[in-house]
Each structure stands twice: as C-alpha cells, then as structure tokens.
Amino acid sequence: MGAPMLVLVCGAEPKIALHESRQQIQAGIEAILPYAQSLGVKLAVEPLHPMYADTRSAINSLKQANDLVEAIDSSWVGVAIDVYHLWWDDNLEAEIQRCGTLQKIFAFHICDWKVPTTDMLLDRGLMGEGCIPVAQIKRWVQQAGFNGFDEVEIFSNHHWSRNQHEFLKDIVSAYKNL
Questions:
Q1: pLDDT, the chain, mean
Q2: Average pLDDT, stretch 27-35?
Q3: H/E element, 166
Q4: Phi and psi dihedrals of 175, rounded to 5?
Q5: How far is CA 151 from CA 37, 38, 83, 113, 138, in A?
Q6: Structural domain boundaries of the chain?
C-alpha cells in the first residue's frame, strides 16, 4: 500500500487480565517490528479511552503508551495522540512532553467530545462542539515538537448522514477557529 505508518489499536481480551494483555501487546509489536521496519512502516500505538478497556484496547493512557514504546526502544515505534481518548487525563500535558522528549509523537487526531454523548463511538463532534480543550492540547503537542498533520477524526452517525460537502466546510471552519 505504501503507507508510511500503521496506527495500532491494541485490543484486549476480557478474560485476560489487563497487565497480561499489555504484555501480549508488547510481544506482538516486537514480533512484527522487523517486518514493519523492512517495509519502512512506522508503528503508532494509539491509547484508547478506558471505556474501551474491555475488548478494544488494553492501552488506555498516554503514560501506558509511553511506557510501552520506551520499553520497545525503537525509532520505528511511537504514539498516536487522539484528543477524544486522552483529554480527561490529568497527567496529559506531562505525558505529551515526555512523548516529545522521546521523539515518539507520530500522529495527532482531533475532534470533540459532545455533551451529552449519545454513542461512545459514533457521536464525536466538530472541534468546539464539546468539552475537549482541543486548542490547548494542540499547543502542548506542538510544544513537544510535533509538526505533522492534525488529523480530523470525527466518527459520527449524525455528521456522516449530512451533506458531505457541508460537513467538510464545517470541519474547515471549526479547525480555523481552534
């Protein structure tokens, strides 16, 4: 495919303790790392909100992701920072700085957490529609040395059902108003 990076959503098995799942995730990344490296593909671990710890991801904080990539210690393994999944963490600024010091910020995803949220996966909002301090987190990510793309990632049945040209205009407007 020629993709320069694969974002890893590191699943969990509810019948296995989270610490065991995290050990399996590390072993799995270490196992595929030589192949990814031979293809020139970076691996970005994306921590997901703790509400997904049951089956979707055993990596639920930026600290856990930083610990994992630091343990693997490869320039090919880093982190995808997604504001939807991390905005709530009171250690977020420090962990973003840590991630930047390690030079491990590979991707940055933005959207907003709508209040009230009607669907934990498919009710994300445009930046400014919810409670995430997107602009502040973006500043922290930039101050940590990330100069890549801000990837707008709005999983939303509401927005997907709209006229997509209007939706795109609204995304651009919301992004400009950060």
A1: 97
A2: 98
A3: helix 164-176
A4: -65, -40
A5: 23, 26, 11, 16, 11
A6: 5-176
